[in-house]
Write a structure and sequence with these properties.
The complex is a heterodimer of chains A (830) and B (201). Chain A is of the alpha/beta class and 830 residues long. Chain A is built from 23 helices and 29 strands. Among the domains of chain A are: 232 residues, Dimethylsulfoxide Reductase, domain 2 (3-Layer(aba) Sandwich); 136 residues, 3-Layer(aba) Sandwich (Rossmann fold), CATH 3.40.50.740; 142 residues, Beta Barrel (Barwin-like endoglucanases). Chain B is elongated, with a radius of gyration of 28 Å. In chain B, β7, α7 and β8 form a beta-alpha-beta unit. The chains are: A alpha/beta (830), B alpha+beta (201). At the A-B interface, α12, α15, β10, β11 and β12 of A face β1, β2, β3, α4 and α5 of B. Iron/sulfur cluster sits at the interface of chains B and A. Chain A: It is found in: Periplasm. Chain A: Keywords: 4Fe-4S, Calcium, Iron, Iron-sulfur, Metal-binding, Oxidoreductase, Periplasm, Selenocysteine, Signal, Tungsten.
Chain lengths: 830, 201
């Protein structure tokens, strides 16, 4: 989330599209309803009349997988009716930038952008660039009239997205479509704020990233980013999925979003040089230019004293991926399926039910030599060898089921969707012999290291040089019990030497050796500071000479009434509650909307430090420096090298602007927007196990997955709770009354839902919530299933199995998140 | 006036407040005294399910959780919880939890309980075996090189990668931040690059 949960109350219009907060983030509705009490409108766009739709002022149905058509139509509506916030886009986005004249878009190339290579399914992005002036800064046309400027190119591409055409693709009735456009576009004035809530309903598509981008562009056009009540808000699914992402448990990133080193980044200097963006724009903060400080401080945190200037701070100990290598989820299980891995850890996760194409995953698990499963409960992954259709005697995998304890049996922090790091306490001892995950990690560290110290082995250096100072040691040097505070402090980071500011004469002491670093602006590139995750630097700091855990704070002050609650726990970065907040003010630093001021620039007040006039008042300013319109002022989008937000975004695989493509499995022979039916840059797996079927009579209905309030993810932590299981005992498939009639299926009947990859039992839920879609000139039926069930529990099999047995293992072209929200199925009586 | 349960709890410990309210709260005090949480140790936690991050009060007595309820002071949920958060105590009081490590041997047809030390020793051995066997020091890459005359040629070169190809890992968004940090630190020290979790799906 760019904003946070409570901030939803500051909105005038809330669009829930790609999410169903009423079911899946129930308490968020408290804040949506609080906004509505003040007159705000809630719009819900969803294939099904969801629980959120039931609370909405305006509901519009949409066929799964057509969000870009819907949003592209909204972009066109905003542009044609002059509803955009001109001052905002001219000053704070790249709308005015001139693009390379050789750039061509989908309106010129029938659905493609310039540079496409059909054999490689990849673009050469040479023409996706800006025209630069002699100083190396993009050339702008502030009147937005040059035909090569981003604004005009945007207009040109989306002129094709007429309401009629969009309605034909999405199946959204024309009048509803226009009502949504009109209401949402009303937030393009400075005094109105619109926000968007999305979740897996947008990301689990082959065009997932571009779904989110399309909305981000709308938010920029309407000036809704960086303001209270605005932003683009990912409602994340798990209590700490924000934190686990911040901590880099993903193949492509290290903690704090530093990229995983690849083979071409041969040493630390090259890594820093090649991964730190450069800019010639004098007003750009270009925050990532500090990369060197963050990566060096990270290396110092993980290798401690073993990391020295002479050994490049241990950079060569870090594992490297090949250039261009993709080791993401679908690739990982594909490699496992091919037998690449001996060993596998499934730690606090149940891939046998959670990943797309579960049959392929389950087969892949059988090719392992060993599998370690860490969980509170036995699950479909740990017990895959005794699953349906498997003969245990044939499975040669050695399997370990290690019981961890629940969150109330240990101490530590988690980070919610609004980026609040919140500390939790231990209430009781772990149940039975279960252990905190940290203790299991601790034991594995010492046991593996001991083997390497005793026996040697392949490249032991990174194993034996890891620093591990997390508490009291026993006589053998092993840490008895990990102290979570010691870890939290290492994450925040320490001054490892006395650090001086050498820019002043005489040099001034900034930080004392052994003290916690107060914030990431003090991190250094020469190895004199450590920080396990620079984004969390400031979460555990010194106050009056004592360490203070900021994440445990419980201050309830809310002086602005905006609900920032700046003294309650802690939010990254540096406790900022709304990121990109300097976009909430005009170039002179005055709030666009004086009724909702996040901050303002006081040009006459003297700065306490410098003694010069000009200070920010209100929220912690993003990035420092005065407002953009003042001398030496700074542009608001501090993480972007140009300092402005990218309406034209050349970084993505399938194009700088989102274009509508159908899902890999879809009910239509053609894409009426262009002759390019599916995303031209997705990876298509080719094994028999990867089968997909479009416009195939065997699988005539669009299928989608979702969640219910009473269960969570694959259900491991909820199916075992009797109250929750009683409320939602088994798998169901929801369908329209019309489809039920067509198939002769009555509400409550047991049916089988099948796809090209598998089938699953379900109870038919025939309801008014789904309606057949009028798409082009045909009728398209859609059905939906929750993905919370699995064969292993309840043990009598009454919950049925996972609906991921149906979903296709094809991913988004950028993130490789599987397309679980739009695929083709059939339904028959059991 | 409305008196929430939280107020009861607070009031039962602070008579000064009661006097200043000018209302008779004796029945409320009596009720608070009778609450079964009166001798319980209270700690705060954050809901382990979705990412709203609702605050929860946990009451424990004799090492057992006897009550959980929404934290009325928490600014996000203001004491409210959804069905999942409201049943969180069932995670701690749950007969179906695994209480001891379990092991299944190759071709085996049943789980058997094992000791922690035995399981972790065995896993450490397997990690080392698989790592040693699959460790890749260099990987071939096409790189551009400048010749003495200034022309550029593409040559194949061995570049250092120092990674383990034979072990993969997924998880977890269910761990605490501190655990995520040491976990990624540990598995990267073993050389793993196939490292993923819930955020990808
Ligand atoms: S109580 Fe419900 S809404 Fe709150 S964090 Fe838990 S699952 Fe989410």
């Amino acid at each position: 989330m760019t904003n946070h949960w409570i901030d939803l109350k500051n909105s005038d219009v809330i669009l829930a599209m790609g999410a169903n907060p009423a079911s899946n983030h129930p308490i968020s509705m408290k804040w949506i309803m609080r906004a509505r009490e003040k007159g705000a409108k809630l719009i819900c766009v969803d294939p099904r009349f969801s629980q959120t739709a039931a609370k909405a002022d305006l509901y519009a149905p949409i066929r799964s997988g057509t969000d870009i058509a819907f949003l592209g139509g909204m972009i066109s509506y905003i542009l044609t009716n002059d509803l955009y916030f001109k001052e905002y886009i001219v000053n704070y986005t790249n709308a005015a930038f001139l693009v390379n004249p050789d750039f061509k878009g989908p309106s010129d190339l029938d659905g493609l952008f310039s540079g496409y290579d059909a054999d490689k399914r990849k673009y050469d992005k040479t023409t996706w660039t800006f025209q630069m002036d002699e100083t190396g800064v993009p050339i702008k046309d502030l009147s937005l009239s040059n035909p090569n400027c981003v604004f005009q190119l945007l207009k040109k591409q989306y002129a094709r997205y007429t309401p009629e055409k969009v309605s034909g693709i999405t199946g959204t009735p024309l009048d509803k479509l226009l009502e949504v456009y009109k209401l949402y576009a009303s937030t393009g004035t400075p005094d109105r704020a619109g926000t968007e809530c999305y979740a897996m309903g947008w990301t689990q598509h082959t065009v997932g990233t571009q779904n989110v981008r399309a909305m981000s562009m709308i938010q920029l056009l309407l000036g809704n980013v960086g303001i209270a009540g605005g932003g683009i808000n990912a409602l994340r699914g798990e209590s700490n999925v924000q934190g686990s992402t911040d901590y880099g448990i993903l193949f492509h990133i290290l903690p704090g979003y530093n990229p995983t080193p690849n083979a071409s980044l041969v040493d630390l200097a090259t890594y820093i040089e090649k991964t730190s963006p450069k800019t010639n724009e004098p007003k750009s903060v270009n925050w990532w230019a500090h990369r060197g400080k963050y990566i060096t401080s990270y290396l110092k945190a993980i290798y401690g004293e073993a990391a020295t200037k002479d050994n490049d701070f241990g950079y060569s100990w870090m594992p490297k991926i090949d250039v261009g290598m993709n080791a993401s989820w679908l690739m990982l299980f594909d490699k496992m399926f091919q037998g690449q891995f001996d060993g596998f850890f499934a730690w606090g996760q149940n891939p046998a039910c959670s990943g797309a194409n579960a049959n392929k995953t389950r087969t892949a698990l059988g090719k392992l030599k060993w599998l370690v499963n860490v969980n509170l409960f036995d699950n479909e992954t740990a017990s895959f060898w005794r699953g349906p259709g498997v003969n245990a005697k044939d499975i040669q995998t050695e399997v370990f089921m290690l019981p961890c304890c629940s969150s109330m049996e240990k101490e530590g922090s988690i980070t919610n969707s609004g980026r609040w790091g919140q500390w939790r306490y231990k209430a009781i001892e772990p149940l039975g012999e279960s252990r905190p995950d940290a203790e299991i990690i601790n034991d594995l560290f010492f046991k593996v290291r001991e083997l390497y110290m005793k026996e040697g082995g392949a490249y032991p250096d990174p194993v034996v040089n890891l620093s591990w100072e997390y508490g009291e040691k026993d006589s053998s040097g092993k840490i008895k019990h990990l102290d979570p505070h010691a870890i939290a402090k290492e994450i925040n980071g320490y001054y490892l030497e006395d650090v001086y500011d050498t820019k002043v004469d005489p040099p001034k002491l900034i930080g004392k050796k052994g003290d916690l670093v107060p914030s990431f602006v003090f991190l250094q590139m020469d190895g004199t500071t450590s920080s396990g995750n620079w984004l969390y630097c400031n979460s555990y700091i010194m106050k009056d000479g004592k360490p203070v855990n900021m994440m445990a704070r419980r201050g309830k002050e809310d002086p602005t009434g905006l609900g920032l609650f700046s003294n309650w726990t802690w939010s990254w970065p540096v406790n900022r509650r709304i990121i990109y907040n300097r976009a909430s003010v005009d170039p002179q630093g005055q709030p666009w909307d004086p009724k909702r001021p996040l901050m303002n620039w006081n040009a006459t007040k003297l700065d306490a430090k410098s003694g010069k006039p000009g200070v920010w008042e209100g929220d912690v300013v993003d990035g420092g420096g005065g407002p953009a319109g003042t001398e030496k002022g700074k542009l608001p989008f501090i993480m972007k090298p140009d300092g402005v937000a990218s309406i034209f975004g050349p970084g993505l695989a399938e194009g700088p602007f989102p274009e509508h493509y159908e899902a890999l499995e879809c009910p239509l022979e053609t894409n009426s927007m262009s002759k390019q039916r599916i995303n031209p840059t997705i990876k298509i797996f080719n094994d028999q196990a990867d089968a997909f079927y479009s416009c195939d009579l065997r699988f005539p209905y669009v299928g989608t997955t979702y969640r219910v309030s009473e269960h969570w993810q694959t259900g491991v932590m909820t199916r075992h709770c009797s109250w929750l299981l009683e409320m939602q005992p088994q798998n169901f498939v929801e369908m329209s009354v019309e489809l039920g009639k067509e198939l002769g299926i009555a509400n409550g009947e047991t049916v089988i839902v099948s796809s090209g990859r598998g089938e699953v039992k379900a109870v038919a839920l025939v309801s008014e919530r789904f309606k057949p879609f009028k798409v082009e000139n045909t009728t398209v039926h859609q059905v939906g299933l929750p993905w919370h069930y699995g064969w292993q529990f309840p043990e009598d099999g009454s919950g049925y199995d996972s609906v991921n047995l149906l979903t296709p293992n094809v991913g988004d072209a950028n993130t490789m998140i599987p397309e679980s929200k739009a695929f083709m199925v059939n339904v028959r009586k059991a | 006036m409305g008196v929430s349960r939280r107020d009861f709890i607070k009031l039962s410990g602070g008579t000064v407040l009661v006097a200043s309210l000018g209302v008779n709260l004796d029945p409320a005090k009596a009720y608070a005294k009778d609450l079964r949480i009166k001798n319980a140790k209270q700690t705060t936690t954050v809901c382990p399910y979705c990412s709203v991050g609702c605050g929860i009060l946990v009451h424990a007595e004799n090492g057992k959780i006897i009550n959980t309820e929404g934290d009325p002071d928490h600014p996000i949920n203001e004491g409210a919880l959804c069905a999942k958060g409201a049943s969180v105590w069932q995670l701690a009081n749950n007969e179906t939890r695994v209480k001891k490590p379990m092991y299944r041997e190759p071709g085996g047809t049943a789980w058997k309980e094992v000791e922690w030390d035995w399981a972790l020793d065995r896993i450490a051995k397997l990690v080392k075996e698989s790592r040693d066997k699959s460790f890749k020091t260099v990987s071939k890459h096409k790189v551009k090189e400048k010749l003495a005359d200034g022309t550029e040629v593409e040559v194949e070169k061995d570049l250092v990668v120092n990674r383990t190809e034979g072990i993969a890992h997924v998880g977890s968004a269910a761990l605490d931040n501190e655990e995520c940090y040491i976990l990624q630190k540990l598995i990267r020290s073993w050389g793993l690059v196939y490292v993923e979790h819930q955020a990808r799906i």
